[in-house]
Structure formats: C-alpha cells, structure tokens
C-alpha cells in the first residue's frame, strides 16, 4: 500500500513539473460553466410533445454533473459530465440502457456548452456528433444534437429538446 501511495505522489509531482499546478479542488469558474443545466426537467420537442424527463445533479464536491434521462418511449440513459483541468475542456461520457456509448468533449462557445465526439457508423465509417446546450432567458435550456456522416460537410438533427425546470 505504501508503494502505491508513493508511486501516486511521484506521478502527481512529475505531471505537474512541466505545467502550472492547477487548483487542488473544483472551485474555479470553469467548473461552473455547465451549472445552468442543473435541475429536474420536463423535456419537450419543438412541436410541444413530451420527450421525457431529465435530472441533472452536481456531485463529487462540484467536480462533476450526473444526468439521468428517462424517455417517454421507455429509453433510459446516464451521463457524467466534468471539466478536465489538464485538458482544459469539458467531457461527457453517456451510456444508455442498450449499451450505447457516446464520448464528447468541448466547452463554452457563444454562450452555449458545445461538446463533440465520434462513433463508428454501422457502415464502417465515422459519425460525428455535436451537441449544444443553450441557456434561454426564461430559464429553460435548449439541447440541439446533430450528427454528420460526411466529416461535417452536412449535419442532420438527431434531437432538439427544450428543458423546462420542474422545481
């Protein structure tokens, strides 16, 4: 056990030797960029239909947000969202109840949280994803998810939802 602790201390010291040492906690302003998404939400499509419910909660002393999605179609998923101070970007790891996984990364852009990633396409290619969460003046949040199979030349909407806080 002492060897593991010593190795961790050496690794930590070595990794900080080439870069500025980041704060030891998650109190920096960059950790609050996604706080507008915290809450219990009813999610509706652009035509007003209820798509599902989502609960976003801070966890780990404000170092991460957890998401619990329940769709009206019976779908369910979870994500962990966090700011990586070494990479200087936000990350999301999503998994659904069918084992689908999506890894995204990015940050604030033009007043929205913009995260992007790729997944293998069923035809052997690569599908690009970009999801933008935008806080709106009435306190709701718009989530717009798009994907591209031609390396971003064209994009198609996968999901467009308006998150209205329930409490």
SSE topology:
Elements: H1 2-16, E1 39-44, E2 50-59, E3 64-71, E4 76-84, E5 89-96, E6 101-109, E7 112-120, E8 126-135, E9 141-148, E10 156-165
Antiparallel strand pairs: 1-2, 1-10, 2-3, 3-4, 4-5, 5-6, 6-7, 7-8, 8-9, 9-10
Describe the 3D structure.
By secondary structure, the protein is mainly β. Helices cover 9% and strands 52% of the residues. It has one helix at residues 2-16; strands spanning 39-44, 50-59, 64-71, 76-84, 89-96, 101-109, 112-120, 126-135, 141-148, 156-165. A 10-stranded antiparallel barrel has the order 1-2-3-4-5-6-7-8-9-10. The chain is globular and about 45 Å long. The protein starts with a helix and ends with a strand. Mean pLDDT is 90; it is low at 1-17.
Characterize this entry briefly.
The chain is built from 1 helix and 10 strands, in the order H-E-E-E-E-E-E-E-E-E-E.
Jot down its keywords.
mainly beta, 167 residues, globular, 9% helix, 10-stranded antiparallel barrel, 1 helix
Main sheet record: 10 strands, antiparallel, barrel
Number of helices: 1
Strand coverage percent: over 45%
Distance between the termini: 46 Å
Structural class: mainly beta
């Amino acid at each position: 056990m002492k060897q593991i602790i010593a190795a961790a201390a050496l690794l930590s010291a070595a990794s900080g030797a080439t870069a500025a040492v980041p704060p030891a906690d998650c109190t920096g302003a960059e950790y609050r960029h996604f706080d507008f998404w915290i809450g219990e939400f009813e999610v509706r499509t652009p035509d007003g239909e209820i798509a599902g419910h989502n609960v976003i909660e801070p966890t780990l002393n404000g170092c991460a947000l957890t998401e619990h999605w329940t769709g009206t179609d019976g779908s369910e998923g979870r994500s962990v969202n966090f700011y990586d101070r070494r990479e200087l970007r936000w990350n999301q790891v999503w998994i659904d109840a069918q084992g689908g996984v999506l890894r995204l990364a990015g940050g604030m852009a033009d007043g929205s949280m913009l995260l992007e990633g790729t997944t293998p396409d069923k035809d052997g290619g690569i599908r690009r994803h970009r999801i933008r969460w935008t806080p709106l003046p009435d306190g709701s949040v718009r989530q717009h998810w798009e994907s591209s199979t031609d390396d971003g030349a064209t994009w198609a909407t996968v999901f467009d939802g308006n998150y209205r806080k329930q409490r």
